[in-house]
Write a structure and sequence with these properties.
Blueprint: E1 22-26, E2 33-38, E3 41-44, H1 45-49, H2 52-55, H3 61-64, H4 68-83, H5 88-91, E4 95-97, E5 102-104, E6 112-115, H6 119-129, E7 146-148, E8 154-156, E9 161-162, E10 165-167, E11 178-180, E12 184-185, E13 188-194, H7 209-212, E14 213-220, E15 223-224, H8 225-231, E16 245-247, E17 252-253, E18 261-262, E19 282-283, E20 286-291, E21 294-297, H9 308-316, E22 327-329, H10 344-347, E23 355-356, E24 362-363, E25 371-379, E26 385-396
Parallel strand pairs: 6-22, 8-16, 9-26
Antiparallel strand pairs: 1-2, 1-5, 2-3, 3-4, 6-7, 10-11, 12-15, 13-14, 13-22, 14-16, 14-17, 18-19, 20-21, 20-25, 23-24, 25-26
Bound molecules: calcium ion.
């Protein structure tokens, strides 16, 4: 139990007092509103803080747009409310059991960018697709590679994912086959939600990361490898990625991640000034990837070459504007170990080494009915752990 918080928080809860992530929930029979998770409960912020304009809303965007000082102020007020016994009688009426509410998409997405920031992931993919060559492409250590994804198909955890159809590479001289993807994969990633906008024509420096980015969540970038292999040259991923990208419902504020900050791996190529680390924004997050309940991998975010502050600086170095609700993801998180790989393509080495599941079946890629869950934990203050919750999704043949 957390001694200073009057809401009981189970010992192993991802959401102790030091976390306080934000989400959008719908109570039974009620309209969507903004809440903060505490233990097994959700605190209804409009009810608890009396600010309906900001919190009696179906998405976080108005709050995100209010900026860092306001984010700090609200976090301090919520912390005070949850630790002040005198506030308990009124605040208790604003608590809902988390298992009695439905979680919704937490923010209204603006633009969506997906990066490719894990050296271990990029090198593994390079070894599979370009054997005998340098596993990293020539620009990889000079800039964080990314592409613009499809913001309109970001979905909240728990949403079923319909197996995509598309064209795949033809056998020699034949027509490209068209049908359901047979190589449907996951990518375990971490996502970053932009709050404060920036004007077109300006740059956001690495040191300004905390002024613009509100918080962090988990991402599953579902990927159809067979569609991707046929379509991606020369312009990159398109329909192999755009059918669905799942996000976790709780956005953990950067303020909650102070104890998780860490130096990124040593840089092995010189960086342009705009990418020099203004602060250490590596994050000590440990992800866990489960397929039908079975642990497949534990990818460490500490091993990511590029930090989210560098991704943001690179995304805006050409003068591209930021809007409230813009979202960017890290790319697949993979560490150096065989049990630290964040997608099935790496875990099964392009399908060569199937994974054995507890029910006796094996997998190279996902089958209909398979359910994938990605969770993550991070150090909290004083040796505690906090969690990002989970992003979960099930593959279905049709809606
Ligand atoms: Ca990805």
């Amino acid at each position: 139990m957390t001694s200073s918080c009057w809401v009981p928080v189970p010992e192993d809860s991802p959401f102790p007092l030091h976390n306080l992530p934000y989400g959008v929930f719908a109570p039974a029979g009620g309209p969507p509103r903004i809440g903060v998770a505490i233990g097994d409960h959700v605190l209804d912020l409009a009810h608890a803080l009396g600010d309906d304009d900001t919190f009696a809303r179906p998405h976080l965007n108005p709050f995100l747009a209010q900026g860092r000082e306001r984010w700090r102020e609200v976090r301090a007020r919520v912390t005070a409310l949850l630790t002040d016994e005198a506030a308990r009688p009124t605040a208790e009426a604003a608590l809902h059991a988390r298992d009695a509410v439905r979680m919704l998409m937490p923010f209204r997405p603006g633009d969506y960018v997906d990066f490719y920031a894990s050296e271990h992931h990029a090198a593994n993919i390079g070894r599979m697709l370009r054997p005998g060559q340098d596993p990293l492409t020539p620009q990889w250590k000079h800039l964080p590679i990314g592409y613009h994804g499809r913001a309109g198909t970001l979905v909240v955890s728990g949403t079923d994912v319909v197996r995509p159809w598309g064209q795949t590479r033809p056998a020699d001289g034949g027509e490209p086959p068209f049908g359901p993807s047979r190589r449907l994969d996951i990518e375990a990633e971490v996502g970053f939600v932009v709050g404060t906008p920036s004007p077109q024509g300006s740059r956001v420096g690495v040191g300004d990361f905390e002024d613009h980015v509100f918080g962090v969540c988990l991402v599953n970038d579902w990927s159809a490898r067979d569609l991707q292999a046929w379509e991606y040259v020369p312009l990159g991923p398109f329909l192999a990625k755009s059918f669905a990208t799942s996000v976790s419902p709780w956005i953990v504020p950067l303020e909650a991640l102070g104890a998780a900050r860490t130096a990124p791996p040593e840089r092995t190529a010189p960086l342009r000034d705009y990418l020099r680390d203004g602060a250490d924004w590596g994050l000590d997050l440990t992800l866990e990837v489960r397929l039908n309940g079975q642990l497949l991998a534990s990818p460490p975010f500490t091993s990511m070459y590029w930090t989210p502050a560098q991704m943001l600086a690179h995304m805006t170095v050409n003068g591209a504007a930021l809007r409230t609700g813009d979202f960017y993801a890290s790319g697949t998180v993979s560490g150096p170990g065989a049990d630290e790989r964040g997608c099935l393509m790496e875990i099964t080495w392009n399908g060569e080494n199937p994974v054995a599941l507890a029910d006796g079946s094996t997998r190279t890629f996902l089958e209909d009915g398979d359910e994938v869950a990605i969770t993550a934990t991070a150090p909290g203050p004083d040796g505690t752990r906090i969690g990002l919750g989970e992003v979960r999704g099930r593959v279905v043949d049709r809606p």
